[in-house]
From TrEMBL:
PROSITE patterns noted in UniProt: PROKAR_LIPOPROTEIN
Pfam families: Peripla_BP_4
Lineage of the species this protein comes from: Bacteria, Bacillati, Actinomycetota, Actinomycetes, Propionibacteriales
GO molecular function: carbohydrate binding
Location in the cell: Cell envelope
UniProt organism field: Nocardioides gansuensis
Name listed for the protein in its UniProt record: Sugar ABC transporter substrate-binding protein
Keywords linked to the UniProt accession: Signal
Length: 350
């Protein structure tokens, strides 16, 4: 039975992780005033953060763009900076070499930038130089991969890897209930098992499945590449002659995963992806994929906004607090045919 032939009810989006969706609220500073044109007791929020202020120089160092999501991180940061005439963005060459990235941050410090946005290739390796920047009075915005000291960053903005797994598992439970699947066979195609982010995603998936008394029946691990995705998906299909639900952690490796499905002419299962690529969203539109769980590629863009606010001494208008928070974790929503148009523009090219 094809997953596409099963009845599709309106999906309840699995945004079960209680987190701050910072990317949607970074457009104003906190303030109240009286609207004299009407009820004088009514307070009206004043939001002028998008108006040009004092020009700030922001240094940005990101990863080598050898993966669709990572490329989107870099491009979204630069595109966001271009929206503001009061941002002077200094962009270092993307790298996977911690030593080179340390040198880049040292250059930013020597140049006296007003803030640094940094997605470290290795959080532990970049901690000391980030502390050096902070001690020089330069606020550091840490993106995606955390430093090993709280003194290394003014603000940390993260995706939610555990939350991705929880969202995928909760949605899988929903599919099982909606489609009355008895004794479902559930498979998982992970990324690199040596990475904490992969472990977090798998832990979240496992924990969410326990809520509906289910477990993963077959799990393979790929390497976040198209080739490894195809290889491991082929191995999975050979091991299981019937599968009801497959969760693949990463939509970039999902290109290979989908190729393996097509080559084997297998589509009896609900296929759930991860990260939110444009390919995945196109497949959802076309009915060839059930859903994907978003891991926002806008984290560095949000980091640029946060760095601008911090350097200009502003806060976030939707919070009572007048300063930018020290830690922000973005949501991991499930994207389905019901809401794909809402998220489509966030999809990145694999």
């Amino acid at each position: 039975m094809s997953a596409r032939s099963l009845p599709r009810r309106r999906r309840l989006q699995a945004s079960i992780v209680a987190v701050a969706t910072a990317g949607l609220v970074l457009t104003g500073c906190t303030g109240n005033t009286v609207d004299n044109s009407g009820d004088e007791d009514r307070a009206t929020a004043v939001s002028d953060n998008d108006e040009a202020g004092e020009t700030v120089t922001i240094g940005f160092s990101g990863p080598a763009a050898d993966h669709g999501w990572l490329a989107a991180i870099n491009s979204s940061a630069q595109e966001e900076a271009e929206k503001y005439e009061d941002i002077d963005l200094q962009v270092a060459e993307g790298t996977n070499d911690p030593s080179q990235q340390i040198a880049q941050v040292e250059t930013f410090i020597n140049n006296g930038v007003d803030a640094i946005v940094l997605l470290p290739t290795d959080g532990a390796a970049l901690t000391d130089v980030a502390i050096e920047a902070m001690e020089a009075g330069i606020p550091v915005v840490n993106v995606d991969r955390e430093f090993s000291s709280p003194f290394a960053a003014r603000t940390t903005i993260l995706g939610d890897n555990y939350g991705m797994g929880v969202s995928a598992g909760t949605y899988a439970c929903q599919l099982i209930e909606e489609n009355n699947i008895a004794d479902p066979v559930i498979a998982e195609i992970a990324g690199l098992d040596s990475l904490p982010l992969t472990q977090d995603r798998s832990d979240g998936f496992k924990d969410a499945l326990e809520a509906c008394d289910q477990e993963v029946d077959n799990r393979v691990a790929a390497e976040f590449t198209v080739e490894s995705g195809e290889e491991q998906a082929s191995n999975l299909l050979q091991a299981e002659d019937h599968i009801d639900i497959i969760w693949n952690h990463d939509d970039d490796q999902g290109v290979g995963v989908k190729a393996a499905f097509d080559n084997a002419e297998r589509d009896e299962f609900f296929f759930i992806g991860g990260a939110g690529s444009r390919n995945a969203m196109d497949w959802i539109r076309d009915g060839e994929m059930e859903a994907t769980v978003l891991y926002p590629p806008t984290q560095a863009a949000d980091g640029i906004r946060l760095a601008r606010l911090i350097a200009q001494g502003k806060g976030i208008s939707d919070l009572v607090q007048v300063e930018v928070p020290r830690r922000i974790v973005l949501n991991a929503p499930v994207v389905t045919a019901d809401n794909v148009e809402e998220y489509y523009d966030l999809g990145f090219e694999s």
